[in-house]
Amino acid sequence: MKKRILVISPHPDDESLGLGGTISKSIAEGHDVFILTVSGHLPPLYSRKDYDITVKESYEAFEILGVKKSSFLEIPATMVGDEPIHSLNKKISSVVQDYKPNVVYCPFPDRHIDHKLIFESSMVATRPVNIGKEIELVAAYETLSETHWNAPFIEPNFTPNMVINIEKFIDNKVNALRCYKSQINEDSGPRSIKAVRALAEFRGTQAGFSYGEALYVIRISA
Fold this sequence. Notes:
Blueprint: E1 4-9, H1 14-28, E2 32-40, H2 48-65, E3 69-76, H3 85-99, E4 103-107, H4 113-125, E5 137-141, E6 162-165, H5 170-178, H6 193-205, E7 212-220
Parallel strand pairs: 1-2, 1-4, 2-3, 4-5
Antiparallel strand pairs: 5-7, 6-7
Helix pairs in contact: 1-5, 2-5, 3-4, 5-6
């Protein structure tokens, strides 16, 4: 059965870092995927030109993954906390209400303050009431660097309980990430292509695949 899948991405590139293979696989299997990008490199910390570059890179990545539906909320990066919580909740909830997803993937509440706050609002938006009753799966994905920089046992540890097989889609994930030339390095750094492949291979071995993407299931109904 065709599913409506909502991916809540804090910033341009997070969707591909965390779920590029899953997104591409889901679309190849006939499901509908919507990417909601909440924040980005906007003034006052960045120039509008910086943001426009990342949005252009996003659309290039979406084309590789097969994504046709997306939206950008344009909240300045690292300043999501300046948005009144009721306003942030409403903006994310409105997308959930309009799109009526069966599956929601949200960021794990990690080192990046934007990820934490967007996770909190995602939990509000996906509560199992009204339209939320139709959501069959809510799960959090990891983001290279930020998720792995949490302080163990002081902050939440990302301990996945679900791995998606992306053996046939690892190249799509990597090629989508290569579109983010302003963000992703090929060989060095915590968000490099080399690191992405290494993590995908490790997650795959945890479940008997060549390459995988890990999730923490928050709620599932059957």
